[in-house]
Each structure stands twice: as structure tokens, then as C-alpha cells.
Amino acid sequence: MPLVTVSLRRPRDAAFKRAVLDAVHAALVSAGVPEADRFQRVHTLAPDDFVVDPRYPDLSAERTADFVLIEILWSVGRSVKIKRKLVADVTSALTRTLGIAADNVMIVFVETAWENWSFAGGRLLNA
Fold it and tell me: How far, in Å, CA of 16 to CA of 47, rounded?
């Protein structure tokens, strides 16, 4: 039940956005998320609306306009091992398929309790 939000600098074509979303979804499925559980959105922002530090926390080279910010909102309970694998899988796929340098990929996990989800019909999960 992850909700994925990808933020990119403009301009980005549909194929690029789809490749990023596909890479994230494949990694999530590999981590145990059901194939049909796909809820994703992309924000493409003007450079003035997407400010990132070029080297934080300790990069040897500056981030470029290819920077991708991926936020994964999901339920609590995944281990650090699963998160590390997911980060590695996404980063590897984006480098392989789109040529994005690993230092241009930032992934943030946000965990929430199951009872904070309502997929439809006004029903909360596990409430």
C-alpha cells in the first residue's frame, strides 16, 4: 500500500517519468508489495520551485538537473534490510535505464500506521 511521489525538474517527457515509476514499482514488488498495489504520482517542477543542496551531506560531485526525489509513504513494519535493498534496487535501475548518477537519487521513507489508510468506500484499514 505504498503511495509513491516522485519530484523531478522540468522538462521531463512521459517516457522518462514512466521509467522512474516502473523502477520504483519493480523494487517495491521485489520487497513484497503486491503487483497490483500501484499508487504513484509525479511532480515536475520548475528549477526555482525545486531547490536542493548540491552536495549535502558529503557528495564529492554536485547534483545535477537529473536529481530525482522519491518519497515512499507506506505502513510501518519494514526492516532496515528491506529498505536498503529497495534503495539499492531503485538506484541501480535508474542508473542502468536512464543513466542517472547514484548521487542524483534521493529516497525518503515515511511510515504510517495501517489505520491511517482508506483506499475506498470510507473504510479504514484495520480500524
Answer: 17
pTM of the model: 0.94
Which residue is listed with cell 511510515? 111
The CB-based long-range contact list for 16-20 (8 Å cut-off, 24+ gap) reads 16/98, 17/42, 17/44, 19/94, 19/97, 19/98, 20/68, 20/70, 20/94, 20/98
pLDDT in tens, 67-109: 999 999 999 999 999 999 999 999 999 999 999 999 999 999 9
Fold of 3-116: Macrophage Migration Inhibitory Factor (3.30.429)
Cβ contacts of residue 84 below 8 Å, gap of 6+? none
SS3 32: coil
Smallest CA-to-CA distance from 12 within 20, 4, 3 is with 20
Show the cell assigned to 18: 514512466
Indicate the Cα dihedral angle 26, 31, 37, 40, nearest 10°: -60
pLDDT for 127 beyond 60: no
